[in-house]
Amino acid sequence: MPTRRTFLKYLAGLGVGSLLSWNIMLPKTAVSRSIGTSEQQWTKNRKAKLSFVVVSDIHIARLNALKHFSALLSDNYYSKPDAMVVVGDLGDGLSKYYNMLNNELTEHKIEINYPIYWTIGNHEFYGGFYKNRMWSPKTFPNSETDELAIRRFLTLAKRNKVYGDTWVNDYHFIFLGSEKSRMSDKDYRDEAYLSDAQLDWCQNALNNDKQLHKPIFVFLHQPIPYTTLGGLQRGYVIQWQKLKDILSQHPEVILFNGHTHYQLDYENMVSKESFTIVNSSSLAFPIDRDRKPIMNSAPGLVVEVDDDRIVIKGRDFLNQDWISGSEITVPR
Q: Containing domain of residue 29, as a range?
């Protein structure tokens, strides 16, 4: 039996440039059979001013990671979010991993009718562990540099810096990211290095946002230490105190992190400082509090903003279902 993706490719070959055209061509029953409806598919709240998806640690080359990423894109097709943000650890930094990711995006290009934004993670700097495309930590950094790693990421992200911002439905999105790795200084390990220039830019971007009573969404792969997960995680941001001081001046900020891979539940998801911090787990490889892998699950977040609150819900995109105990509400 032909798959939905095969059918979409067939339509593309006929010159059908939009899913709207597809819906006009086929009766609703035929559309439902083609895309495979689910009772648990998520439908965007019609009252929402903004609806977007957040995932992290997609690790595109890991076992089943492509399957999880494909399931995410297919699940999003039903709801048509306003945007999606991938919060770092896309692959291991080499061109071949970006090629894998771009190939998958191309496979789903007809289904992706929303912008995708990216932040850089520590694994984007892991090219230094490879020699002739084979894992070789003993010969680190294998002629790799931070500049090469960042250049590959920026080609995908279509930005000129690892940090930047945009507006989606008139809501401010700010992207932060490490500018150095252990290739520059072995003591950096997997921690984020945020330059003074980046932190000053972030402070100015927040200070210049004049939209009163509107949330500002900030994305950084590594978490600020001693915040989420009961304050148990160690320092993953070298300049964490300065970053925290900047964000603390803006209670409207909601900061999304990845990196830890911890499962989505209320205890692991959220920390309320003077601003809000949310963990987004790992699409490819979630783990429980004992660091044991959670099999056959591809978790991420669905965020919806209405007039008086922000609702953040954990979703298993592989199984097209909501994750029990993972819904939080942030009042506006």
A: 1-37
* Domain co-membership, 75 together with 103: yes
Do residues 69 and 21 both lie within one domain? no
- Do 181 and 248 reside in the same domain of the chain? yes
Where would I find the beta strands (DSSP E) of the chain? Answer: 50-55, 83-87, 116-119, 130-131, 134-135, 164-168, 171-175, 216-219, 253-257, 270-272, 276-279, 299-305, 309-316, 321-331
Query: Quick one: pLDDT at residue 31?
Result: 27
Q: How many C-beta neighbours within 10 Å does residue 213 have? A: 8
Provide the pLDDT for residue 133. 84
Dihedral (CA of 59, 65, 70, 74) sign: negative
pLDDT at 2: 41
Q: Are residues 33 and 106 in the same domain?
A: no
CA distances from 262 to 130, 233, 281, 284 (A): 27, 11, 5, 12
CA angle at residue 51 from 19 to 254, to 5 degrees? 150
How many residues appear in the chain?
332
Q: What domain count does the chain have?
A: 2
Q: Which of 103, 83, 64, 25 is nearest to 282 (CA)?
A: 64
What burial class does residue 145 get, using C-beta atoms within 10 Å of its C-beta: 0-12 exposed, 13-18 middle, 19+ buried? middle
State residue 232's pLDDT score.
Answer: 52
pLDDT score of 274? 85
Note the pLDDT of residue 212. Answer: 73
Name the pTM for this structure.
0.86
Name which of 120, 121, 122, 127 is nearest 157 in CA terms.
120
Please state the φ and ψ torsions of residue 243, each to the nearest 5 degrees.
-60, -45
Q: Do 8 and 148 fall into the same domain?
A: no
Residue 106 half-sphere exposure toward CB, CA atoms < 13 A: 7
User: Based on the domain organization, do 56 and 8 belong to the same domain?
Assistant: no
Residue ranges for the chain with pLDDT beneath 50: 1-39, 230-231
